[in-house]
Amino acid sequence: MVVLGDVIADFSAKTTKGDINFYEWLGDSWCIFFSHPNAFTPVCTTELGRVAQLVPEFQSRNVKVIGCACDTSSDNEKWLDDVKSYSKISENTEFPFPIIADESRSLAVKLGMIDPDEKDKSGVPVTCRAVFVIDPSKKIRLSILYPATTGRNFTEILRVVDSLQLTDAKKVATPADWKPGDACMIQPTVLNEEAIKLFPKGFETQQVPSGKGYIRITPHP
């Protein structure tokens, strides 16, 4: 089981693109690591197709994508033909990211991705719909678990990456429903004197009944 701030341990795995060592594969990139319950299932097919469509967006942000399930590599490779067909990806196009074959469920158990209520045809629990955002230092920066019946919104995951990368670079936080280009909030630990230097576009302090000037809004830095 991993939690926010944990450094994900290195591992080796068999994937649809051959054997990998995770640290070596990731290099200095960010990573979207996501699991899905089973190959040849409807919601998972839509998810892999959507992620494949978003790969250019992730790549432009120095993000690599990797999937994980408890199926065999052979099943995953056959299933990707269905994913490409459903998502209108040319059958001659190589699928843009690898899928880990975690048949032993060792990785799923280690990362806390097993869904006890979702089982395969043999009655064995399979992976839930987990999403981890991992930064270049291999640290878990986001962790979300979805039930098997709910497909994920990967546009939201992309938005989170934008927020994480921005707030790593600048002393800001992003408010509810923020999107790239929107105004940001200055972090509470930044004194006004420092904020004047850090944010040349200026900032506005919103007045609230408590009288505490903690809501400071600045244009996208």
From TrEMBL:
<feature type="domain" description="Thioredoxin">
    <location>
        <begin position="2"/>
        <end position="166"/>
    </location>
</feature>
<keyword id="KW-0049">Antioxidant</keyword>
<comment type="similarity">
    <text>Belongs to the peroxiredoxin family. Prx6 subfamily.</text>
</comment>
<keyword id="KW-0676">Redox-active center</keyword>
<dbReference type="InterPro" id="IPR019479">
    <property type="entry name" value="Peroxiredoxin_C"/>
</dbReference>
<keyword id="KW-0575">Peroxidase</keyword>
<protein>
    <recommendedName>
        <fullName>1-Cys peroxiredoxin</fullName>
    </recommendedName>
</protein>
<dbReference type="Pfam" id="PF10417">
    <property type="entry name" value="1-cysPrx_C"/>
</dbReference>
<feature type="active site" description="Cysteine sulfenic acid (-SOH) intermediate; for peroxidase activity">
    <location>
        <position position="44"/>
    </location>
</feature>
<dbReference type="GO" id="GO:0051920">
    <property type="term" value="F:peroxiredoxin activity"/>
</dbReference>
<dbReference type="InterPro" id="IPR013766">
    <property type="entry name" value="Thioredoxin_domain"/>
</dbReference>
<dbReference type="InterPro" id="IPR036249">
    <property type="entry name" value="Thioredoxin-like_sf"/>
</dbReference>
<keyword id="KW-0560">Oxidoreductase</keyword>
<dbReference type="InterPro" id="IPR045020">
    <property type="entry name" value="PRX_1cys"/>
</dbReference>
<dbReference type="GO" id="GO:0045454">
    <property type="term" value="P:cell redox homeostasis"/>
</dbReference>
<dbReference type="GO" id="GO:0005829">
    <property type="term" value="C:cytosol"/>
</dbReference>
<dbReference type="GO" id="GO:0005739">
    <property type="term" value="C:mitochondrion"/>
</dbReference>
<comment type="function">
    <text>Thiol-specific peroxidase that catalyzes the reduction of hydrogen peroxide and organic hydroperoxides to water and alcohols, respectively. Plays a role in cell protection against oxidative stress by detoxifying peroxides.</text>
</comment>
<dbReference type="InterPro" id="IPR024706">
    <property type="entry name" value="Peroxiredoxin_AhpC-typ"/>
</dbReference>
<dbReference type="Pfam" id="PF00578">
    <property type="entry name" value="AhpC-TSA"/>
</dbReference>
<dbReference type="InterPro" id="IPR000866">
    <property type="entry name" value="AhpC/TSA"/>
</dbReference>
